[in-house]
Predict the 3D structure of the following.
Amino acid sequence: MDKGALALLVNGGTENWSSSRWQARFEEVCPDRRVVLLPNGALDPAEVHYAAVWKPKPGELAAFKKLRVIFNLGAGVDALMADRSLPDVPLVRVAVGDLTDRMTEYVVLHVLMHHRQEPYLRESQRARRWAPKVQWAAGALTVGVMGLGTLGAASAQALRALGFRVVGWSRSEKQIEGIACFHGMDGLDAFLRQSNILVCLLPLTPQTRHILNRDLFTRLNRDSPLRAPVIINAGRGGLQNEPDILRALDDGTLGAASLDVYETEPLPTDSPFWSHPKVVLTPHNAADTDADEISKYVAQQLARFEAGGALENVVDRTRGY
Ligand code: NDP
Ligand code: OXD
């Protein structure tokens, strides 16, 4: 059987998304297959049967008429969903333990940072000030996790294991031990009214765009030792209304924000987020997509598919994630 080429299209721009690194890894895990880095003017598009991609630009995959599967090299597929000319073949996203563990680390780190008053303690250190404030127990706070999928459910369980009260919100009904689960727009208010720290791990879809807005912030719970609620967004920048976040931080509606993702990435140097005293900023590295792990995951899926098996983690295009 003609194996067809695997085309690699990586528009990353950061060290983790170096296309030569991804090419070397794919050549190692797919030794019997031609791995071609795009763009490649010498390539006959009909030779391409599979594509492994990160942030392709709209239209970049349309030329490959013999495509059988598109593998997205990350968990979020919003960039692909925005491409109206995307070939109508199965689209597989990443859902692997390595990525999930990395995101859990990020979420636990940032929840603990706000819970343990780290910004205040670092400021005290710089001022050589010995002035501890009362520290409450984890059980005094409720963490609300928006999105109870692969990443959200794992983070919720890790937070629960640390002693936080945890509530979760998803599109469909869920049951997760020890976590009060809410779903749908009807369940959103009850979920928000309990949440002192809000962790957002939703995918970006037309339904979730700008869901993190002023109206939502005003519905978060202020009755905790933190008083003003805190938001942590590691989903996508398009989930947040950025002027609303800044206004809410400035007028005390929000106490702090940990942000890993932004409407425009890289974050422009003149963004107020860089220097805002209540913002803990990271450059979209909450859960790096590891080239070793993900190339193996794609190679395994590809081998299974060619042997007649089913693909896993196929995106539902009508839902958009
Ligand atoms: P999943 O698809 O496994 O989970 C998505 C969750 O969001 C599901 O629980 C889903 O509900 C819920 N959801 C989707 N739409 C809605 C809606 N309209 N209302 C309520 N709930 C909704 O995704 P993952 O957990 O794997 O990843 C989540 C996102 O994290 C990715 O899409 C990506 O954007 C982001 N990400 C960010 C990274 C970073 O480094 N910052 C790294 C990796 C991912 P239901 O369960 O009912 O379907
Ligand atoms: C992803 C990401 O979606 O890295 O995997 O953001």
About this structure: The CA atoms of residues 141 and 224 lie 6 Å apart. The first helix runs from residue 19 to 29.
